[in-house]
Amino acid sequence: MWDEQKLLEVVRKHLPPTAEICREDDWARRVCVRLEDVDGDGMQEIVGTYHLEGNTYIMGLKVDESGWQLVANLIGSHRYPHDFHRGGAPYYWYYLAEAQLKANMPQQAVKSIESGWRLKEAGPSRESWLELLQQVRIELVRQTVNLFPASVKTDRGTKWGYINDKGQLVIDPRYDYADDFQENGLAIVTLLDKNGLIDKDNKYVIVPKYDTITRFSQDRAAVVDAAGFHVINDKGEILTDKPYSFIGMYQEGRALFSQVDPQGTSHYGYLDREGKEVIPATYQSGTDFHEGRAVVQARPNEFILIGRNGERLHTFSYANVGQSGDGLLAFQETENGPYGYVDENGNVVIPPRYLTAQPFEKGRAIVNAAKDFAENNQYGLIDKKGTFLIPGEYNDIHSLKENRVAVGKARDPQRPYLGSKFAIADTDGKIFTDFLYNEVMEYQDGKASANDDRHTFFINRGGQIDRFFPMLEGSGTLTQENDLVKALINQRVSYYTRTGNPVWRQNTVIPLTDQYRVREELFNPNKDYIVYYPRVEGMANKDAQNKINDRLKDMSQVKPIPANEQLDYSYSGDFSVEFFRKQLLEMLLVGYNFPFGAAHGMPTQTYAHIDLVKGRMYQLKDLFKPNSNYVKVLSEIVGNLIKNDPQYSYVFPGSYKGIKPDQPFYVKQDALYLYFAPYEIGPYAAGFPTFRIPFAQIMDIIDTEGDFWQSFH
User: Fold this and answer.
1) 460: which strand partners?
2) Residue ranges making up the domain that contains 702
3) What is the pLDDT of residues 583-626, one digit of tens each?
4) What stretch of H or E contains 640?
5) Global confidence as pTM
6) N- or C-end of the chain: fewer Cβ atoms within 10 A?
7) Which residues are bridge partners to 67 per DSSP?
């Protein structure tokens, strides 16, 4: 007869030196070790779980002639200590399959699912098995594709293609942007400002023709064209029978949609996976479905909890009601009043007392206990009784999944809008680290990407740096992509092996000809200030080359910036070669200044027009004959476009007064383009209003014998 002590003696012989046996979170604190015939061979095996360096492991021991042998040892779910004694062998197979999936062993996970599914004992629900099987299938597809987006700087701008896990370009860089391959084996690509879908063989499922394609969710995606939103399947077929003004992502077989009536009012309803209106558009607003529930607003002070077919489950007479989570909903009794929580029957569970309140998840919710927005944030974590597990005193708290949160203290308590330094805590309130990190992403498979002032790395569930993965210089994020680590650091995508060896990095030299090239330089004096700027090489006149490069640095905002001071804004800058013909090099210099605490930042763009032979930069006036009155001619052309072309209907009435003599511009082979800054003549959302003027339309004023024209003709 085996008792707990004997089982522990056997298990401890196979544990790593610093590992601790898990104990269940109940009053008895039972150890998570048991005897179970998990493989159905009539012989009992020992199954156990243990903690090591912030991770939870599942292990299996099987006896043979020489004694107990370790046959399974994998990083698994943090749920093991909670669920360990709730069932028999099916749970073992379920958690083993889950652990095998986390360890990139999907084929083995399929076999474990098959083993557990066959057993007749009580175990995980059918839905849980099917959900896990779907995750395994997704991983199988992902490993089959094994292609990763990679960028190359060229004399036609930055182009994107795909590499394999050896860093070899498998799909040539021809796209203006390329997204990751998704679970269905498709990837979104951008070409000439239009989006399409390709498969792993670089064959179009959808040629680039849509303004937007969203990521797939439940085998469905939304596409946007001039008519509006549509739903497509993974074959690129449109399922909806009319366009909509909005379609959200599918959740639990439903997608929120809206349509606008002749008075301009939006009405919301829900589509099923076939693109049919399963819940008509009769509501003023709606949430995504979660746990089979959604919240819709019928009219002011009337919110309704509905089921998947639109059935009314409860009506709430409040100013605002949020999404259901764990059976509770955040609500406001009055507009601009504090938030509390009600249950799905309308009973007040936590009275209104919070400035903001997020949905509950696994018995926890993030709230802000400040009295008003003029007061410093007081974020905390509460349970379903309203008890603070993490006190309401922090500048930020973010959910990281896997029972972890990032807890943030203000960098400068007098200026909390400058952001936070984060510590890692669990959802019971135990804080594992000091306030070390600038950013922390959500946990996945027991690790999360994080960065500090100097490096980017993975941390484990204890908040410690995971030394089994690369630590890279710079600020950004890491994700594990099969056997590679994808790094988006300092606004550049690169790939590494798990041991930190580089597999792919974007080139830093752009060849133009055998003689000329552009070299990328990095200026990063402060964690919140980063600029990539160009340096031209190969010009015969070195003095002119040096002057041009000095000018490019100035135009790129390379200037004295304090290294160790906290700026009250962030700035990023970059460049691309947009046009190169004959001896004219045209480069686009872009920037984005974001004041911390602002609703959005301000983008800038400037073109440099460089004659590589004559060693000069051209201005707009250099394109035209002397005394041609080009300002008047071009102003009239732009004015007529604004007046007669519907695409410029967004221009503010009366805002256009003509162009300036030094109006921002760029050229292509057959046309001149004039543009304006955001807000100058149109709304922020319009970006840089741009007007194309074919050269054929203005040939009579162009100085065709001048240096500018001759530089690219």
Assistant:
1) 447
2) 623-711
3) 999 999 999 999 998 889 999 999 999 999 999 999 999 999 99
4) helix 630-644
5) 0.80
6) N
7) 64
